[in-house]
Design brief:
This protein has 626 residues and is α/β, with parallel strands linked by helices. The chain is 23% helix and 24% strand. The strands form 6 sheets. An 8-stranded parallel barrel has the order 9-10-13-17-18-19-20-21. It has an 8-stranded antiparallel β-sheet with strand order 22-23-24-29-26-27-28-25. A 4-stranded antiparallel β-sheet has the order 1-2-5-4, with no helix packed on it.
């Protein structure tokens, strides 16, 4: 029943051949029509291709596919097949072997451990027009951004251990995040992956949302509801490597089609996965079309790109002799660089107001530089250096922190080299690293105080913020994807206090333009005192035109500092807008009775000063009254 009347047009095939089809999902995969479904798959080296489905008892011979000219695309139209029907492609590869494969462009997949693709057509009617219109005029680098990172399968679970559905997640997550005041959520990979223990980072179906939570429209409803509540959505995206399952992308047409055929480039021995062939333009097309798909079809506000460092370097996780240099004799993966530049340039052009964020841990120059200047073109880069240094500092007993003072100030040496996100992510609270709370020294009161002080210091530091779920209430146990967070801790006032502090901190942060309006401009930050190692104290000013200045004083010593003279930008009243030691947060209640008064007189290089009380293991924010 081969029918080429439903085949892609010549322009589509030409663009696919050239690797320039930006809407690949509208042409390949299962395309539902009024009289059935057209199946189209790119398998240039296959000798024969069939579509096998439940509607024909999985007999692929009933529906052989036809190769369209020299495109490498195979096609068949099957009448009577509609939304929800299951299918796979049956291919006789270049090696002569038959094998069943899921559809690389499937927009819906079977729930694992089943692995068939499913026909899909969205019926969702979006209600976030106001959000999208406002987003198109924004520049995220100049906006407030506090991100709540979520692993949906373990954020909450039913008592039975069963996963929440998309709608149940929305019912719980939307009001929770809105109440806490986070501007964005970042969802760890929602693309279909067969093994939950990979947390979504070993993907098998790049265009299909995780079927364990329900059908694809459920994810759209979740994003829609977050947008209508004023919360942006960033999706984790994994273009560097893919899962090895034989029914997915691996040796798709009997050859290493999606993976690099050179094992020195095509196999990630650290992660046990295949690396995409970035030198093949059809593969780059598959990936950047996938990026566009999530941004346009699912209205995502950004993509956090996983493992960028592993893509950039040919010697990443390889010993001497396990890699070969590029054409210039260097260790840079020039094809991966080209892909990242193409992807970023394309998505920023097509979807104004979105953001891409690189998880990149090296000193690669220009990660957030414009592609026109040779940069990679990302909007932001994770500041892994700040994360490692600051966590190392706060893990020390206060008695020894003075010897490590520079770990908290060094980040300001390079703070404006890139546009940064400060990440306390899932990677820092798993695999024996312990929870964020348990990294802190001392008894439980001191651990909680350290946590509150650290978060407020982080929120005042230049850069956007990302916090993994559970850290907002002092999760005690290390994160495990197999169980939900320890929500019962919120019944304890000391943990409820951390939660309340994060809520108030986010509200003050978003209302204080000085904390984010010049995140990437050295004029937006000034040290008051960076050198008070003896008292484990840091003081600085944040500023932005049109907004009142904010002063942050952080004391990581176990004792309060009374009569602490601090230089200030101007005389007058400064309101204590945040004090992490407040009794309402289960602190000791040491503070400045709501405000301080600065008088004229030079101190710390500033024209005014005040003598203040700095609570123990606490961060205090002061905002200048108009």
């Amino acid at each position: 029943m081969t029918d080429t009347t439903h085949a892609p047009g010549e322009l589509d095939l030409h663009l696919i051949n050239e690797g320039r089809h930006e809407e690949l999902w509208t042409v390949l995969g299962a395309q539902v029509g009024d009289d059935g479904t057209s199946f189209r798959v790119w398998a240039p080296n296959a000798l024969e291709v069939q579509v096998a489905g439940e509607w024909a008892g999985w007999d692929g011979a009933a529906h052989p596919m036809t190769r369209l000219a020299d495109s490498g695309v195979w096609h068949v139209h099957v009448e009577g097949v509609g939304v929800g029907d299951q299918y796979k492609y049956r291919l006789r590869g270049a090696d002569g072997q038959w094998g069943d494969r899921a559809d690389p462009l499937a927009q819906y997949a079977e729930k694992p451990p089943s692995s068939a693709s499913r026909v899909w057509r969205s019926e969702h009617q979006w209600g976030d027009d106001e959000w999208l219109e406002a987003r198109s005029t924004r520049q995220p680098v100049d906006e407030a951004m506090s991100i709540y990172e979520v692993h949906l399968a373990s954020w909450r679970k039913h008592y039975s251990g069963e996963l929440y559905t998309w709608d149940q997640i929305a019912d719980a997550l939307v009001p929770y995040v809105s109440d806490l005041g986070f501007t964005h959520v970042e969802l760890m990979p929602v693309m279909q992956h067969p093994f939950g223990g990979s947390w979504g980072y070993h993907v098998t179906s790049y265009f299909a949302p995780d079927a364990r939570f329900g059908d694809p429209d459920g994810l759209k409803r979740l994003i829609d509801r977050l947008h209508q509540a004023g919360v942006g959505v960033i999706l984790d995206w994994v273009p560097g490597h893919f899962a090895t399952d034989e029914w997915a992308l691996a040796r798709f047409d009997g050859t290493p089609l999606y993976e690099d055929p050179n094992p020195q480039r095509g196999w990630h021995k650290e992660w046990g996965s295949h690396i995409f062939n970035f030198g093949r333009h059809e593969v780059r097309n598959f990936l950047y079309a996938n990026a566009i798909y999530w941004l346009e079809e699912y209205h995502a506000d950004g993509l956090r790109v996983d493992g960028v460092a592993s893509m950039l370097y040919l010697d990443y996780a390889r010993e001497h002799g396990e890699w070969s240099p590029n054409v210039h004799g260097g260790r840079e993966n020039l094809e991966a660089v080209q892909f990242l530049q193409e992807m970023n340039a394309t998505v920023y052009k097509r979807v104004p107001g979105i953001v891409t964020i690189a998880e990149e841990s090296t000193a690669w120059p220009g990660v957030t530089g414009p592609t026109s200047d040779g940069g990679l073109g990302f909007g932001f880069k994770w500041n892994m250096g700040w994360m490692h240094d600051s966590l190392n500092y706060v893990s020390k007993d206060p008695l020894y922190r003075s010897h490590h003072h520079g770990q908290m100030t060094f980040s300001l040496v390079y703070a404006y080299a890139e546009n940064y996100v400060l990440p306390i992510s899932h990677d820092e609270v798993v695999h024996g690293k312990g929870s964020l709370l348990r990294k802190m020294p001392g008894d439980r009161w001191q651990q909680l105080a350290n946590l509150r002080a650290y978060l407020a210091y982080m929120w005042a530091h230049p850069g956007k913020q990302l916090l993994f779920m559970g850290c907002e209430f002092g999760q005690e146990s290390e994160w495990a994807e197999s169980r939900e967070l320890d929500w019962w801790l919120l019944e304890h006032p000391e943990h409820a206090g951390v939660h309340a502090m994060v809520r108030d901190m986010n509200a003050t942060y978003t209302a204080t333009g000085a904390l984010w309006g010049r995140d990437n401009d050295p004029e937006g930050f000034q040290w008051i005192d960076a050198n008070d190692a003896g008292r484990n104290t840091f003081a600085f000013v944040r500023r932005s035109p049109g907004h009142p200045d904010l002063v942050c004083v952080a004391n990581f010593a176990g004792n309060p500092h009374e009569g602490y003279r601090v230089g200030l930008p101007s005389a007058g009243t400064w309101t204590e807008v945040l004090n992490t030691d407040a009794e309402v947060y289960h602190g000791s209640g040491v503070g400045n009775l709501g405000s301080i008064t600065a008088v004229e007189g030079e101190h710390h290089g500033h024209p005014a000063y005040a003598d203040i009380v700095v609570p123990p293991l606490a961060t205090v924010w002061f905002r200048k009254d108009a």
